[in-house]
Design a protein that fits this description.
heterodimer, A: about 110 residues, mainly beta, 7-stranded mixed beta sheet, 4-stranded antiparallel beta sheet, 11 strands, B: about 110 residues, 6-stranded mixed beta sheet, 5-stranded antiparallel beta sheet, about 0% helix, globular
């Protein structure tokens, strides 16, 4: 039982490049989330999904897109990376309502 | 707009001491207040949570105190241990929707 798995763990991009971060969960959770973590700013919600085929914007969605074609996967895309997107990205999932969030171990992204 | 404000940003405590981290929120509709613990290189993990119908919840050495009228809640770690050294986040949500996190507190417990 792997829980929430994020790939890749590290990535360096040049400004303007694109990439996709993959999140996979094996707990049959309905809800999935993408957060970014920056020093002194806590965890800020980028996009989230309340079920297969659904997505919604969070606090800081600009510059990102997401897709949830399969229940177990939640993809985060950066179409044209900017240095301001340098951050640690966390994926999380939960079963429903106020059940606990389960986080992956993060992807450290640097945009030069 | 930061709906959940956390303090202090960092905290150093001696082994055996009490660690106290405070959070204040703005949205009176929030009805779920969890605390998450994060170790370096790992994702956050749920530590303890409270709902506004109780003023205190204790699990082992960890206690949440909740003051609804003041819109504040705090985490107390009794008998702090070096293994408690981590970053702690408070959070809040309403109706089971998305969590809003505080800025985080980096706790160091010296041996």
């Amino acid at each position: 039982n792997a829980g929430v798995t994020q790939t890749p763990k590290f990535r360096v991009l040049k400004t303007g490049q694109s990439m996709t971060l993959l999140c996979a969960q094996d707990m049959n959770h309905e809800y999935m989330y993408w957060y970014r973590q920056d020093p002194g700013m806590g965890l800020r919600l980028i996009h989230y999904s309340v079920g297969e085929g659904t997505t919604a914007k969070g606090e800081v969605p600009d510059g990102y897109n997401v897709s949830r074609l399969k229940k177990q996967n939640f993809l985060l895309g950066l179409e044209s990376a900017a240095p301001s997107q340098t951050s640690v990205y966390f994926c999380a999932s939960k079963r429903d309502g106020n059940s606990p969030l389960h986080f992956g171990n993060g992807t450290r992204l640097t945009v030069t | 707009q930061q709906q959940v404000k956390q303090s202090p940003q960092s905290l150093i405590v001696q082994k055996g001491g009490i660690s106290i981290i405070n959070c204040a929120y703005e949205n009176t509709a929030f009805d779920y207040f969890p605390w998450y613990q994060q170790f370096p290189g790992k994702g956050p993990a749920l530590l303890i949570a409270i709902r506004p119908d109780v003023s205190e919840k204790k699990e082992g050495r960890f206690t949440i105190s909740f003051n609804k009228s003041a819109k504040q809640f705090s985490l107390h770690i009794m008998d702090s241990q070096p293994g408690d050294s981590a970053t702690y986040f408070c959070a809040a949500s309403k109706g089971g929707s998305r969590l809003t996190f505080g800025e985080g507190t980096q706790l160091t417990v010296n041996p």
